[in-house]
Specification:
It is built from three helices and nine strands; from the N terminus they run αβββββαβαβββ. It has 166 residues and is of the alpha+beta class.
């Protein structure tokens, strides 16, 4: 009974959601120019209309609720990056881990589907975040080169991968 919908499980989810919403939306506001926010709830409404104790996520674009699936690739990427950074920060604060989970974040194809202004907003945010943790970005495009301290290029020569530091 204590972990049912009437018990402590709902209270724990509710507390997490309230704390996490504030953190994730500070990041999402930065990378979307204030156009996007999300609301994470301790319950989810199913297609049948039934409410379940599962994490529900509503994405708001200009104040209107939209489905995550209907967002453009760049908008999804902004949400994904914000969720990743927020989860790392929440864990850091909740468990008093100074640099976040393992002190490292690895992001793959960060700038795909992102326009130049979005790339700049995300890169500036990551520059701030990298002050207390290592952030690795795996990408085919070198647009972020001006924001990073090191660039490692992986080359394949005669079937062997080699790492070259610029």
């Amino acid at each position: 009974k204590s972990f049912s919908s009437g018990g402590i499980k709902t209270l724990l989810f509710d507390k997490f959601c309230n704390q996490f919403n504030s953190t994730v939306n500070s990041y999402l506001s930065t990378v979307s120019g204030g156009l996007m926010s999300i609301v994470i709830r301790p319950t989810k409404v199913l297609k049948s209309g039934e409410e379940r104790n599962k994490i529900g996520i509503d994405v708001l674009f200009n104040g209107t609720v939209v489905k995550f699936e209907s967002l453009s690739g760049g908008e999804k990427k902004r949400v994904d990056v914000s969720l990743c950074l927020a989860l790392n920060k929440w864990i850091s604060e909740r468990y008093n881990i100074e640099n976040g989970l393992l002190g490292i974040i690895v992001l793959d194809e960060l700038c795909c589907f992102i326009d130049d202004s979005g790339t700049e907003a995300i890169a500036s945010l990551l520059l701030d975040e990298s002050q207390n943790k290592a952030i690795y970005i795996i990408d085919h495009d070198l647009d972020l080169k001006s924001y990073v301290s090191n660039v490692l290029t992986v080359l394949k020569v005669d079937g062997v991968s080699l790492i070259n530091r610029e």
